[in-house]
Structure formats: C-alpha cells, structure tokens
Design goal:
The chain has a single domain, classed as Up-down Bundle (Ferritin), CATH 1.20.1260. It is about 80% helix and about 0% strand. It has 5 helices and no strands. Helix 4 runs antiparallel to helix 5. The radius of gyration is 17 Å and the shape is elongated. The N and C termini lie far apart (about 35 Å). The relative contact order is 0.15. It binds hydroxy diiron-OXO moiety.
Length: about 170
Amino acid sequence: MLSKKIEQALNDQIKIEAESSQIYLAMASWAETQGFEGVASFMYAHSDEERMHMLKLAKFVNERGAHAIVSALAAPPVSFGSFKEMFQTLFDHEVMVSQKINDLVDITLTEKDYATHNFLQWYVSEQIEEEALARNILDKINLIGDDKGGLYLFDNDVKMIVANTTAQ
Ligand code: OFO
C-alpha cells in the first residue's frame, strides 16, 4: 500500500512525464514544419518514450492499491526559436526532471517506502542517459551555430541516433 504522501508525489511525477511527452511532441511538429526530418523523428520518438515513462508510473501506482490520476496538462510552446534554443530547452527540461526524480527518491526514504525506492532506480538511471544524450546533441549544435550546411548534416546525424536507438 502506498502512503498518501507517496501517492501524491508519484501522481505529480505522472503529470511531469505526460507534460514532457507533450513538449517533445510540440518540438517534433515544429521541427517537421521547418523541414528537419531527422530532428522531427528524434522528437516523436522521445515523446513516445516520455509517454512510456508516464504509463510505467501509472501502472505501478495502481498495482500498489492507489489511484493514478490523469490530469490536465500545461500547453507546450508552439515554436522554439532556433534548433539551438530548442535543444537547450530540452536539456534544461531533462535537468529539471532529474531533480524531480531525486526529490521523489528522497521522499521514499523519509517515508521508508523501499519498494517505491527500488522501483524509482530505473528512473534514476534513465535520467543519467537522457541528460547525457541531450548534452551530446547540445554540444554538437553549439559547434554548428546557424550554419545551414552544418544544420543539414546535423539533421542527418540525429536521424542516425534515432535509427540506432530504435534498432536496439
Ligand atoms: Fe521521462 O525522462 Fe525525459 O523527461
């Protein structure tokens, strides 16, 4: 059984993951309208991953005898300025999510809920990967700046990242 405090904290995280999925979906759509197919498919895939993070939490909450809540979500931005700004937003967002996961892990320790603590370790590792990937892409795009040819090659590079991660 989950304590009310843990149930609330997990439901807050469900909302964050659902909002992450919406943000990346908005990024995918914006990138697609700019003709950047590789970046768009990366963002569509990332959006699906966030939905999976959300569902994994929701199932855990219900399995533990509590109730996963599907709540209203904040609307994501419509456009993102430049690709550099967009990937900076993505990186900052992942850092924020990591912080939220850390806070959640902290609550499980004060509540002595070791089952939830154990369950959350998957998210702790996932956040390390997500931050590393976002940092890697951000480093690349910072090198390119606004160079059109560079952005074209970057888009192809990102397409390869998607192909490699979906092939795993
Ligand atoms: Fe759910 O990991 Fe990104 O936000």
